[in-house]
């Protein structure tokens, strides 16, 4: 049972005629875009914005119309995955490297539907490394500050080279951090000069759709 696909396809059922849809990034969002493309080919009329170059390319290849951000007022629903979800629907995102764009789009959305397999549900965030997007300039100093906060940062690599986001930045993945107060840590990280954004999505998820190995689906709404 592909729990990601199960949750993704359920989320796409919520998309209605004429909506503006935010398209997430990553392995779970991939399934949502595929299903949405199928619905568009069957006659659904929507418009969309994407959170990464690869999601935009996937959507265009399926006939999903991508519109410029300048033409979008509000987004009706954004569908995206998550790397971890706690019982208060706080999230860690950014494993796919698009956390900044994902957060910008989510903040512009009336609703954010988060799609996950049951393995992503946790009691306390932090087993998954927390991504922090940082500017290349003086990134060594930014890493020093993260180390001083005992966040165990390591620069993300891509085939041996430094990983570079669609925005031209680096990602420091912070390992083995028990995040008991996501809002406090979020504020502390974003107050650091050199930090662009971090992967904590605090009070942004409207609904979490969980696909389970037995084929059932849970919908958790605040």
TrEMBL record:
EC number: 5.3.1.6
Enzyme class per UniProt: isomerase
Highest taxon listed in the record's lineage: Bacteria
Keywords annotated in UniProt: Isomerase
Protein name: Ribose-5-phosphate isomerase RpiA
Lineage summary: Bacteria, Bacillati, Bacillota, Bacilli, Bacillales
